[in-house]
Write a structure and sequence with these properties.
By secondary structure, the protein is α/β, with parallel strands linked by helices. It folds into two domains: about 250 residues, QueA-like (3-Layer(aba) Sandwich); about 80 residues, Beta Barrel (Thrombin, subunit H), CATH 2.40.10.240. Helices cover about 20% and strands about 30% of the residues. A nine-stranded mixed sheet has the order 2-1-17-16-14-3-12-13-15. Strands 5-6-7-10-9-8 form a six-stranded antiparallel β-barrel. A two-stranded parallel ribbon has the order 4-11. Transfers and isomerizes the ribose moiety from AdoMet to the 7-aminomethyl group of 7-deazaguanine (preQ1-tRNA) to give epoxyqueuosine (oQ-tRNA). InterPro entries: QueA (IPR003699), QueA_dom1 (IPR042118), QueA_dom2 (IPR042119), QueA_sf (IPR036100). This is S-adenosylmethionine:tRNA ribosyltransferase-isomerase.
Length: about 350
Amino acid sequence: MNVRDFYFDLPQELIAQDPLEDRSASRLLVLDKHTGEIEHRHFKDILDYLKKGDCLVINDTKVIPARLFGVKEGTEAKIEILLLKRRENDIWETLVKPGKKAKAGTVISFGEGLLKGTVIDVVEEGNRLIQFSYEGIFEEILDQLGQMPLPPYITHQLQDKNRYQTVYAKNEGSAAAPTAGLHFTKELLKEIQDKGVEIAHVTLHVGLGTFRPVKVDEIEAHHMHSEFYIVEEEEAKKVNDAKRNGGRIVCVGTTSCRTVESASTEDGILKAGSGWTEIFIYPGYRFKILDCLITNFHLPESTLIMLVSALAGRDHVLHAYEEAVRERYRFFSFGDAMFLTDQKDRGTVN
């Protein structure tokens, strides 16, 4: 399967630069994963498509302000780093720009010395292992000095850090937000629960690997970077009970999808536990747990549009994307949403 099979034309002006004031006011394209039928709604209408007995799976990871700007000690050269994953204690794997100025032994100062980092090794794909030193609590210093790691296609300054967090974000560790969850408000989640829909929490710390471009022609040769996930016993039980009782498993975002599909058995039982996943879902994949998916619109030729195509079929997905472009939907992280479902299995639509 060729990466070009997942290309679509996107006008630059449709890339959303700012979040909407009301999270749930985004538009919602509803796509029947079997027939390709499309409906145009608003996100708060998701309530109409969920029904008692369903289980909504959300990723409660919290984005850390992982982008730091510092200077190289001795030369005062400016260096930008992005924290990717904590290896141990105060050692982090990072992405450094410009990398040529960050050889092993380089010391980088942030916030006029409030935080210092020493490059101790160069690892896979040129990433740097940096050991940090500081006085106080690392998370508090990071909150003071760091910026949210917005994707490069967002050029506007984010005024409120919390708008790049879901309202249920809890477990710190992500380098990017699980953006399908940005549409939910606490009020909407309560309405969903009041309808009899179970809400299960999982955690997957989103790394940049999910968003890296596919650099091979044949997608089967692409290797996904690993991301850490956690599924608690009580949350696994919610999913398994809903599945056993005939409810649908509705994942919020590709990260929740990848978590439950990584942590489940071949016969569709979600197992509690934690670990690293490199799961790459593309057409031909057989879903073990997930029935429906709430997701944003993704980049052309990305692993995420491949995942969506595995659920609803490439032709249906690309047709839906063409329709979204015609209807001037907003794309990517701060953009509008899709709901991939089965119309005959949906809740009562007003």
